[in-house]
Design a protein that fits this description.
homodimer; alpha/beta; Nitrilase/N-carbamoyl-D-aminoacid amidohydrolase; Rossmann fold; 2 domains; six-stranded mixed sheet; 20 strands; about 35% helix
Amino acid sequence: MKLALAQVNPTVGDLAGNRRLVEESIHRAREARAELVVFPEMVLTGYPPMDLLHREGFVKDQLRELETLAKASQGITVVLGAVLSEENLRPKGLQNAGVVFSDGKMIGTRAKSLLPTYDVFDERRYFAAGEKREPLHVPALNAHLGLAICEDTWTPHVEYQIDPVSELAAAGATHIINPSASPWHAGKPLQRREMLCQIASDHALPLIFVNQVGGNDELLFDGGSFVSDERGRVIATLPLFESAFSVVDLAQPEMSALPLEVEEPHRIAQLESGLVLGIRDYFLKQNLPPGAVIGLSGGIDSAVTAHLAVEALGTDRVTGVAMPGPFSSDHSVDDAFALAHNLGIEIRKVNVSPLYEAYLEIFANLFGDQDDYGLTQQNIQSRIRGAVLMAVSNQENRLVLATGNKSELSVGYCTLYGDTVGGLAVLGDVYKRDVYGLARHANLKTERIPIGTIDKPPSAELAPDQFDHNDLPNYDLIDQTLEQLIEGERNLETLETPEGSQREASLNVARRLDRNEYKRRQSPLVLRTSPKAFGTGRRMPIVHRYP
Amino acid sequence: MKLALAQVNPTVGDLAGNRRLVEESIHRAREARAELVVFPEMVLTGYPPMDLLHREGFVKDQLRELETLAKASQGITVVLGAVLSEENLRPKGLQNAGVVFSDGKMIGTRAKSLLPTYDVFDERRYFAAGEKREPLHVPALNAHLGLAICEDTWTPHVEYQIDPVSELAAAGATHIINPSASPWHAGKPLQRREMLCQIASDHALPLIFVNQVGGNDELLFDGGSFVSDERGRVIATLPLFESAFSVVDLAQPEMSALPLEVEEPHRIAQLESGLVLGIRDYFLKQNLPPGAVIGLSGGIDSAVTAHLAVEALGTDRVTGVAMPGPFSSDHSVDDAFALAHNLGIEIRKVNVSPLYEAYLEIFANLFGDQDDYGLTQQNIQSRIRGAVLMAVSNQENRLVLATGNKSELSVGYCTLYGDTVGGLAVLGDVYKRDVYGLARHANLKTERIPIGTIDKPPSAELAPDQFDHNDLPNYDLIDQTLEQLIEGERNLETLETPEGSQREASLNVARRLDRNEYKRRQSPLVLRTSPKAFGTGRRMPIVHRYP
């Protein structure tokens, strides 16, 4: 069987636009004499449409687009994911389904049985589970297609009580087709491929995995579609992080143009590609795509953010603003300008000291004359910078990119309405150590991030001789502690800490993590790169008393 | 049977503190010679604990507190809600259950069958559904208690396919016990009582509804616990919006100290009570309760917010800041001071014009010399005020209360990092017309909100002669449009609009609602007062293309 994989990048809610994407790929598949073309899960709505599913007309409008695809399937078989409406199901009237069209007619549908409702997934909020787990016979292919929608293949990982793939195999499926919208985190493509190949080999059936690619708000989808033969060997793969289309002949895979195996890029390279895609799609899927503006402090976070923005949007759409203040070092502005030079982007300079002085007068009036207003006077510098960036945003239709990393955001080492302002927190799910990794990776071919920026000790430069290592434990300890707390969901008692003084520092990180939930709740969208990111995948109360 | 209702106010995660609340009520019940005392759903964790349920140790620690209650039940029967751990359930190992202790022993448990996963509820994220729907025999009471946990009684409303109450009745229950954590919105207490009384009468069984009271983050719980006899007549009720405890004799309800019927307070009075409770608990459940600070513009939103804060926290914990700027009217400062005088709170005045001038110089430098920077110069005034309020917050450990209403927040008539700053958006789920209602209600006995504030046309005062009615359609049209879109989930095509020019205005409101999702995502917590509030109950993509 000649099979086309259509790894497309739908935009949430763009029902007609997504239908056109599907039609174009059907057309290409037919041109390439493919007999079957497979698309991702919920490809007409884009994933995840969230509560748009409840908006009057939304599903009906999607069904209207879906119907037009019957005609488009003349002379070919098409498998895609779509939302079906089943009024008689209670209390949810929708299903997340796979739909098969063949030679101008709808052959049948199969609703997803396993509805993920954990981490970033809310599928039980919207859908009723499918009950039918039998293959669909497609005469034109002389095949019995076993439709397993995304999570339906994940029983080995999540330990569900039913296993749709086993049921499909037992009922005579000749192929497992797995249309998916499986979000990425660093390392997921390999994990997913190994799991699915094991399934193919366990059931001695070829397995076709076609995944959505692209960024939709906080979620990044890597694509990474592939075909496994019935012995669990990958016989064709599509690339990560880009729209892709190709055809493989299941009978003669060696004749296909697709690589048999794609090397899993190493973690940092994956991180870079994922973040670039996330920035690009967040901007370009908006109806009037804005430019980007970034506050360049001379530090590593803003430098890496700017580098990623340039990779995503090009030099013309990115501008930097250096905003030296009363406690800025000389090298901070120099480093910011060196960065802009390396990246080839515009940079402007604004001295914020006069504004700072004006606020100090107001503080004297409000709080009495003091030599040092402590945190208040540190935060105001950050808030002035935030307001200047937002002025550039207002005046020039640019979206501010926030530069804080996951380590800082976790312990609240950031100023709400200051350095946290923006539309997107690019590094908000990247630990400090990986920010360094991204910087070194950016410099592999040529110096993008100035060496001075990488080598100097991190500092917020909001007070004289301020360095992160005076205000915080070292980042190694922070990151090790946070991974246990966030990814590992440990509590204060089960946290593994070093002995001695470092132990108290580690416990303090844990307390700060909870105490700063209110800041994260008002943070811009965080692009998700880990299995547990700040955002919809981690839902914590703000006011609570559990240690 | 003598029955005690314990309408308590647990704090999320305060496992030992909540257990003490339970013990105290058991003690009171025993003193009053009650045979049975009933508590709300998940009373030891508080509701909703959200992802704390996934934190290592959390459920185990709660189970440890639960076990100690067996001993506390000497000589009495206790029914309460708790989280149970069932390792063998897959993929979720937890259940939301009712637990019965009697005379020192655990009699049995019943897991909740209907797990709400809509609006603000995520129970399928955490729990496996209960399968057993048989009453628990309690020899000491000579009764068969039919435990229906919160949603288990809501089949008539949500149209679930199973009806736990019918099954319990068919299996011989003598009483329906309904421990609940049923969040409030205006009008819900009456709706809930009518539904539950109908159930009691349908099954000819007495029904005991005991609800959590208090605010936990955005969710407000009204309590409103009551008992219906087997003919659907309310024979005892507890008050709304406060912790309460009382005893009723089911055989002789007329002998009880409880009112047979509590008048449903009218909508605006309910709104006021709910919001006051929400503010109070948000502040006082924090380990180091902060004071409050509010920017007082002389307008109605900030005036009503200040009034509610004073009702919640007392005059001493609330301070106001008037921040006149270049376009402020004279009456705005006068009205702010009159308000502070009426409420008896401190007020300070800061002239923000010097800061505004300093920013204008920076704008000239960044954008070239212009007479008017349009929206940029409007927003900067709001952001200066936000920064001043945050300085007061930093310096004096006060939490800023944001003052924007639901109408403004919907259409984005607000400045991100400006008037949206704060820890709590008190009126964020209150339409403009109800803000006026709250103001008039506040003035019923004596003038709290200055009449000038109520009578003058609303204005942001960020530009010369600026009035809301020049920038926006009139609020009646806005509110009518928004209710259809938000509560009614209509789309652009099904929206009912007036004829003529008002139609375009209404459609524009709809477009603004979607376009401003990014602002709301960074808004402070909105206290929920309606069936569909901004927050966890409404999950919309930021970037999407559905009309």
